[in-house]
Structures are given as C-alpha cells and as structure tokens.
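Hey L., structure's done. Input below.
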Amino acid sequence: MVPKRTMNRNFLFLWQGQVVSQIGTQLFQVIVILSLKQATESATLVGLLMMASTIPALVLGPLGGAVVDRYSRRSVLITGDFIRGLALTGIAGILWFGSHSIVLIVGSLFAYSLLEGSVGAVWQPASMSVVPDLVPKEGLGTANSFIQGSFQICTVLGQAIAGLLFRTVGAPLLMLADAATYFYAAISDAFIRIPPLPAKPVDEQKKPSSFKSEIMEGLRHIHSRPGMKMLFYTMAFFQLVMVPMLILFPFYVEDYLRAGPQWYGFLLAASGFGTFIGYGLGGALKLSARTSSRVTVVVMIVMSLCLTALSFVSGPWAALWLIGAVGAMDGFIVLKLITTLQLATPSEIRGRVFGLLMTITRGLTPFAMGLTGIIADMTHRNIPAIYLFCGVAATLLATNVALKRECRDFLAGEEGSMPVAVSFEPKITMHTEAPEATLNAPLLCQLDSLQEIK
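Output:
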C-alpha cells in the first residue's frame, strides 16, 4: 500500500494523467505499425518508422534536460501532452479523409513519429525529474514502484486490445481516442503544484548561461561522481547487448524452441508479468542502504546468468520461467537505479542528468539494431550462439559493477561526497544553506527500490 504522504494530491494528479495517456500510447504504437503495414505492406518502412521515433530523443536528449531545468516542469508536461494530443487529432483527420493517398498517410505517420520523439526528449526528463519534488524522500521508492507497476499494466492492457480495436473500430477513431488521453493528461497536469526550483546564486543571475554550458554542467556533474558515471555507461553497454536478444526473439521462439506463434505471446506475457512483480518487490522491500546495494548487484549478476542460460534451454516451458525471472529482476534493478539517481541528484540539475541518461543509454541502440541483422545473417541465424555471447557480455558488465566499490557505494548512497559548496564554473559559488542543493550529498533515505516511465 502506498503511504498517505506519498499518495498526496499532486502525486495523484501526475499519476492518473500519465496512466491514462500511457494506455493511449500503447494503443498508438500498435495502431501506427498496423496502419503502415496495411497501407504499404513494406517491412522496410515499418523499420524506418520505428527508427525515426528514436532519433530525436537521441539527438535532443541533452537539450531537453536543459530545458527542463530552466523552465517550469509543470508547463513542460502540459505543453508536451497538449502538442501530442493536437498532432494526433490531425493524424486522425488525415487517416479519415486522406485514406486514398498512401503518400499522405506515410508522410503523416513519419512526421508524427519525429514529433513524438522530439517532444518526448523534453517530456520524459521532466516526468522523471518531477516525482522527487512531489513525494517525501522516504516514499520515493514506493511512488516509483506504483508508477512503473501501473505503466506495466497499461502496457499489457493496451497491447492486448489494440489489434482487436484496430479491426473493429478503425485507426482514425483510435487516433482520436489516443489524442483524448493526451488532452486528459494535460488537464490533469494543470492541477499539479510543483515547488519552484532553488533560486540561482547572485553571480549566476548576473551572467545568464547558455544551453551549451548548462548541458556541460550536467555532464560534469555525472563525471564528478565515479559511481554514477560507471553506472551510466554500464547501462549503455548493457542496452547494446540486449538489443540483439530482443530483435531476434521471434526467431528464438520459432526456430530454436520449435514453439508455435502462441508461445511468442506467452513468453512476452511472462516477461511483462515478471517486470510487474519486480517493480512491486522493489517498492515493498525495506532494506538498509548497504543491504539494498548488495542485493542490487547480486540481482544484476543473476539476471545476466539467466540471459546466458536462454542459449542452453530447448523447451518453451523452461524459457518461460527464465524470461519471467529476467523480467522480475529487470524491474527491480530499473526501479532501484532510477530512485537512486533521483535521490542523488539535486532538483536544479535533475532534468539534465535524466536527459543525458536517455541519450547515453539510447546512443548505441540504432547501431545495435543495424548490426544485429548483419550478424544474424553471417552466422546463418545461429541464435543460441548470439544469445550466449550477449549473455556472457551482460554477465561481465554486471560483475564489473559488483567489483567496483564506487558503484556499490553510489547505490548505497555512501559514495565519497564533494564539498557542499560546489561550482562548475570558476568564481561562481553555490549557496550552502539548503542541504538539498548539495550536488554530491549522500542519499538521505534507505534505497529500498525503484524506478523508470512513459
């Protein structure tokens, strides 16, 4: 159960608006692919569309984080939801009245994918940065668990009904429904009251900084924390080795497990259900900071070993249990890492940190997507060998985190702190009256869980 202090008015408005829009987002992700396939029957265009939605976030992530730290996060959330709702309304009109023009349909879908990625580059850092401002520190892990668990349910529900609704209702009406969810989220965000960011020191007010200098400030903050820096880049390389496993998963099910297409759905459901369990455990377990850190690194290693074990199992039931376990451990780890980053980062720089995290972790994804197909063809789709390589690589990454004291200390909130007065620019001194303004203050509560978002 979420504590009453956590389940406050502002958090409820944020949560319920995002939950409604998350259902619409999951509907859209299925509908846009089905619409494009129906109009063109081109797998290449479907792949390019998926890539188009990731590129803006990759390029604009650092700038989006700087925008979040400079302007009202409430305004960013409202504007982002409203723009997406308005754009989807236009797409619905195009699909309704311009269904005879394939060029118009394809062009509008690609345009919206680029818009969605661009807006998301600002909206996502804002949504992740605002949660610590709405709930007490001791309830942050539980709040993140509640959000992520709700999103997981919405994801499964939206994906489960999207195909059926596409056939019975049609794409234009579903686009309008998705637009309505974004308008609802924008209205809900309007009722949130977010504490203002700490006032800048007098010297900084006299010398306005550029977006470039603010982005570099966020990057320097990450690199000034050895544990945070190592975890950032470990997550990036972990994403690199996970992409091939995800892309080749349909081939793994049908060609290696010799299972029917229904098992593909069963295994995806097992992963989703496991992730939901992991979010719940991450929020419910009350562990000391040091114990929480140890549990997290152990779970990282065990999850990587389970990924490796997928290359040795030959039956769908064994794979189902392994994938369910991987999902649960992944949910726990993600929750833990997000909560740790939220607690370890002061509010005035939190947007830039999460914007850079989004860019760093996604930076290698397009490269991995392109490389996966080449490697699969070169190895004659030797899925077990590829899975074994990826699993071993993930195990080495997890083991490296476990062996590095700075990573363990950061996860426990015990990483060596810098002085309270910190400056990223010469001759500019930060105020030290408020502990929250400390860039490298220890975590102020037990890291009992957490994490990630729409």
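The chain has a mean pLDDT of 79. The chain is about 75% helix and 0% strand.

-- N.
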